[in-house]
Each structure stands twice: as structure tokens, then as C-alpha cells.
Amino acid sequence: MCEPVEELEGSELGTKDYWESSYSREIRNYRDHGDVGEVWFDEDSQNRIITWIAKQEEDIKADDSIIDLGCGNGMMLIELAREGYTKLTGIDYSPKAIELSKAICKDQDLTIEYKVVDLLSESEMTALGPFKVVHDKGTYDAISLHPEDAKNMRSLYISNVHRMLKDDGLFILTSCNWTESELVSSFGERFRLRTVIPTPTFKFGGKVGSVVTSIVFIKNDIDNK
After folding, report:
1. pLDDT tens digit string along 168-193?
2. The Methyltransferase domain covers which part of the protein (predicted)?
């Protein structure tokens, strides 16, 4: 049985208005200065995931379908395209984020599909799948910070991700707000732990911790109708 986790305090980081405003600024910066904007959790976190994916040659092929949830400026997928992955999709509920990611992708002369999609909409998410790899770096965190009904939103997110992942697929999640044990508990009804991708650790008060947690889940076989 999954243990309940304590909800996070709400923040503007969990609202669509915040991200629309943020990506409007980043679009202007990109047009004026060629600056692609912030890489969420820094480039090291992104590179760790890409390196891990590249090592899974038995499980993840170059032509397997990969989706990035809350893709932002799309740089995660651009780096995967540079590594030779060909079936890449990025979604975000912010039209401004998708506008930015499409502009960067076009200038890089790459082929990546970007769409405006609400992660919490069952119909929109079902229409996308299924995917061999579902990736999230920070989007589950943002949902968890929504000022209103974040618990229900997290539940919808987990159900929708389960629905869009292939039976033999991998769900890769990076969080700076939740620990490994909290993620395993929250996702435990529909997913089970495959592995934890090592991240830098720190020691404080005799205890060892991590600034971010990167975890890989596989699907539980449940009736998801």
C-alpha cells in the first residue's frame, strides 16, 4: 500500500500564467539575442538523462517514440535529435513555450514535433500515445505546486502518463521537490521502480541527500479503463 505524501505549498510556478509570461520574455530574448533560455535544473541534469538513455541500447532504439512532457524551450529533444533519435515529440500547455521550441528547432534544421497539450486532459493525452519513453524534467514538480487542488492534479497526471506509456515503455522523471521514496509512494499504484539515475549528493548533519532525484519507472499491469 502506498504511503500518503505531504502536499507542497502552492506557488505561482504551478500556474499557466507564470509560464506564459516567462516564455514570452524568452521568445523576445531569443529573437533579439539568440539566447535559447534556461535549461530547467541546469544542463548537467539534462545531460545525465541523455547519457543514460544512450546506454539503454537494448531497450531504447533510435526510432523508438519519445515524448517530453512540459518541454519548455525544447532543448532536451534537440539534444536527443543530435544523438540520432528520430521520433521525438514535445508537449507543453504554454503556447508561448511551443512557439519558442518550434523557432529553435527550425533554426537548428531538425525535425521534432511540438504541440500545445494539457497534460491533465485525458482526451488530449490519449490521442498522443503510446510512447516507448515518456520523459519529465520538472513538470510534475510544477503541477505539484499549483495553488488549487494540486493533489487531484497529480493524480490525473499519473493516470494520464500511465495511459500514454507503452506496456514495455520507460517513464523517466526528474524532480527537485520530491525524494525517491516520495515518488515511489506517489506513483506506486500504477508504476514500479526500475532504477534510479545517480545524481550529485551532499552531506548535511550526518545524512546524505540529493538536490534532484532522477528515477525510472515501468508500468504496473492494471486495468486502466
Report:
1. 999 999 999 999 999 999 999 999 99
2. 61-189
